[in-house]
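Posting this for the archive.
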Amino acid sequence: MYIFCAALIKIILSIPTDIFELIVIFAVIPPAKLNFKPRIVPVSENQSSMEQTDIVSIQWRSQFIFADELFITSLFENKFDKSWEDAVPVWLQAKRALLNNNLSEAGPFIQKLYSLFEMDCTQINMAALQLELKNPASALRILEFSGEKPKKHWEYYFNKSLAFIDLGEYRLALMSLKKLANLEETNVKVAFCYAKIYQQLGYYYKAGEYLELTARLAPNYSPCWYLLGMTQSKLGRLPEAYSSFDQAQKIRPQQFGLWYNKGNVLLRMAKYEQALTCYRHALGLNPGYAMAWNNLGIAFTRLGRNFEALQSYRRALSFNPRLHEAVLNCGLIFETMGKLEKALEYYKRFLQIAPDDFSKQKSCIAARVDKLRQ
């Protein structure tokens, strides 16, 4: 009966083929069964453990709704069944642009759908668009005033959580995300979002647990390995942090932050030659990153190569003259070299520009200045 009706509609209205396919999907599957849930499928060791739609979805920070059947169901549930022929072509164009990772092209179509049909799918996608455009307050307003129907979709709570994260309201973000407790063990984006919130709140052990879960669900998702490395580093689990950064680097070898943080771990592990290699690679990708020049200098200092260390510190200051760590390190190098006047010059500068959270170092350097003057 459902297929017969759909075929009849096609004959009467001469519907384009791609639109007709959506209606057949709706006709064959009754609305009650159109509940979208992310599904993890077993694949070979060399493949990602995610479906293609999930792989595309994870490329976006926010969560758009992609499912055709969900969109069609939403139209009918909101009594827009008389206007579906206007909505579906725009939906297809919006979805195609999103799948191609083209936000500038998708934006106008999403906005047009939202203005024509304020329903759960379009409200959630409009909020997602605002999040991608870095307008979290607008996204939150759309979600909070969208009524009850969108709240049956997990994307609603996920995007609301992201909006709170962007606004720095991490506890509210956590409260919103906890509405999705049934998805936290299977949905990559939910697990990763939990991890980011817990890290921001300083709960690093909890963040690490969710990052390890995310890595199991999406082993080729580089940002997860990167954040896991950062979390393990904060917990002092340096060999594990190194391994996580290494894994992220294999996936995205041209990301300078990975090389820089990998170098930091090696520096803390007293593997100075390897740290030099990482810092040099990072600087090859981003030559103007002052902290990488500073830390390169630290590695040289630990190896007793003071002249190269001084060159690195001064290179750091050429990019950021107020980098107090590099100013202090220049002073220490000059004192080691016996050039006390130059050391005093840099120490005084450090005392002027160092922030309050360097109070211990400032106290030590002030005492050192007094001693050198004597």
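The CA atoms of residues 356 and 362 lie 9 Å apart. Residues 1-35+50-165 form one domain.
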